[in-house]
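Can anyone check this?
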Amino acid sequence: MEVLRIRSLTFGRILVPLLIVAALAVIVTGCGSDDSSGELNGITRVPPARTGNLTLPDDSPQSGGREIEVKGQADGLMLVYFGYTSCPDVCPTTLADLRNALAELDPDQRQRVQVSMVTVDPDRDTGHVLNGYLAHFFGPGQYHSLRTTDPARLDRADRIFGASHKLGKPDADGNYDVSHTALVYAVDPQGTVEVEWPFGTDADLIAEDLKTLLDKNSQNPDA
């Protein structure tokens, strides 16, 4: 049986004209966090999701389309987000929150965290478009632009994380809506999803979790 452990989260205003599809039914309160328990602020699953041998093409400038493993490097973390660049508010708000959370880390900690956006709209999100979008939020070498035009590979990535997405029917002008899971997943070097943050999680709470996980990885690099 899968169990979710959820701490209280602080949510900002949510303006969502698109449907957010959640793979798990989660109830979260908006009461702020209490650090007395020593647990993480985000959602933790028991057992956790694991990325295993999952790889995806990385169109970021430093990778140029080569396959990368979807997991943290060395004693670091990979923050994985499924979204698309035409998203009007949920995606840019989430990425801005991640940028603000990372700004709270010291330089050594910051270098150990990579942000990876998996586009769920690869036809419109070319590598060039995705790189330009992520560069608004993160510096060179700090992000991965994960993109596959193979629906089966994208669906497999969805399943591994417990995420989902759906492209709507194009209108007369070729425009269409996109629905997607609005969670950020923190993946350690062993491919374990340590924590998941729902849309609207306060940047300070994300930063607290990152510091906790990075400290743990430093003390137990082979855990």
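Reply from J.R.: I decoded it. Confidence is low (pLDDT under 50) at residues 1-37.
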